Amino acid sequence: MPPFSQPTFQERTQMAAKAKDAALKKLKAKAPISAEVVAERKAAQLAREQKQAIAREEKRAAFEQLKAERKAAKEQARPKLALGLTEAEKKAARDERYAQRKKRKR
Predict the structure, then answer these.
(1) From CA 27, how far away is CA 38, in angstroms rounded?
(2) Residue-wise pLDDT tens digits, 22-33
(3) Cα separation, 66 vs 61, whole angstroms
(4) Is the dihedral of CA 66, 71, 75, 77 positive or negative?
(5) Residue 71 to residue 64: CA distance in whole angstroms
(6) pLDDT digit string, tens, across residues 31-42
(7) SS3 31
(8) Which helix (H) or strand (E) segment is 86 a member of?
(9) Which of 7, 64, 95, 102 is close enough to 11 for a disulfide, judged by CB 3.0 to 4.6 Å?
(10) What are the b/e assignments for 48-64, b being 16+ CB within 10 Å?
(11) Is 0.85 surpassed by the pTM of this model?
């Protein structure tokens, strides 16, 4: 068994050229795609893109609605500042905010 010898630069370029020619022959041997198949694929792609755009818009609208609902709930939960509150009412509002903060942390 002869010892292994490293291929030279010329041998490597010849092997690469042969591999490239073989790949090109294999590619050219494929049957061409008919215009009908191309049209069907484009139509399917358009349909997919439209479905994705509709889904994206629905998701965005749902997110905006959720965001608006959260903002409304937050505004409703925020205690209304009034100058006529007594000290006891102020303390009760503070205690309520404190309890909500503690509840969120858990």
Answers:
(1) 18
(2) 999 999 998 888
(3) 9
(4) positive
(5) 10
(6) 888 999 999 999
(7) coil
(8) none
(9) 7
(10) eeeeeeeeeeeeeeeee
(11) no
